């Protein structure tokens, strides 16, 4: 599981994931075949449409039958989003806010398939 916090970078217009700006951020490691959960909390004042390349994920909505997506909104002011996916597409995949100006100012990470 990866728990991630979305925020503005202190003293700038940049947007961060866990206080880190891409490309100066460690990859989010997954292992092939694992069922992964990402939990995101938005501490900013803006909506973030979060997108994961190379995978579809199932939103966690309390029913166990959430919709499949590759992009979903994280609401502002402590909004929360959780989703699950199977790590079944090895490689390195971009994970980012789909607002271009957030992407360009650092709200991105790489999801990387590590060793077994």
- Which percent band covers the strand fraction? over 45%
Cα-to-Cα separation, first versus last residue: 16 Å
CATH superfamily: Cupredoxins -  blue copper proteins
By CATH reckoning, the class would read Mainly Beta
**What topology, given as strand order, has the largest sheet?**
2-1-4-9-6-7
Question: What count of domains describes the coordinates?
Answer: 1
- Overall strand count: 11
Rg, rounded, reads 13 Å
Describe the structure.
With 116 residues, the protein is mainly β. It has a single domain (2-26, 48-108), classed as Immunoglobulin-like, CATH 2.60.40.420. It has 1 helix and 11 strands, in the order ββββββββββαβ. The protein has one helix spanning 100-104; strands at residues 2-8, 15-17, 28-30, 35-42, 48-52, 57-59, 68-69, 71-74, 79-86, 92-97, 108-113. The strands form 2 sheets. A 6-stranded mixed β-sheet has the order 2-1-4-9-6-7, with no helix packed on it. A hairpin with an 8-residue loop joins strand 6 (57-59) and strand 7. The model has no long low-confidence stretch (mean pLDDT 94).
Give a quick precis of the structure:
The protein has one helix at residues 100-104; strands spanning 2-8, 15-17, 28-30, 35-42, 48-52, 57-59, 68-69, 71-74, 79-86, 92-97, 108-113. With 116 residues, it is mainly β.
Characteristics:
116 residues, mainly beta, Immunoglobulin-like, six-stranded mixed beta sheet, five-stranded mixed beta sheet, 1 helix, 11 strands, 47% strand
List the helices and strands and how they pair.
Layout: E1 2-8, E2 15-17, E3 28-30, E4 35-42, E5 48-52, E6 57-59, E7 68-69, E8 71-74, E9 79-86, E10 92-97, H1 100-104, E11 108-113
Parallel strand pairs: 1-4, 3-11
Antiparallel strand pairs: 1-2, 4-9, 5-8, 5-10, 6-7, 6-9, 10-11
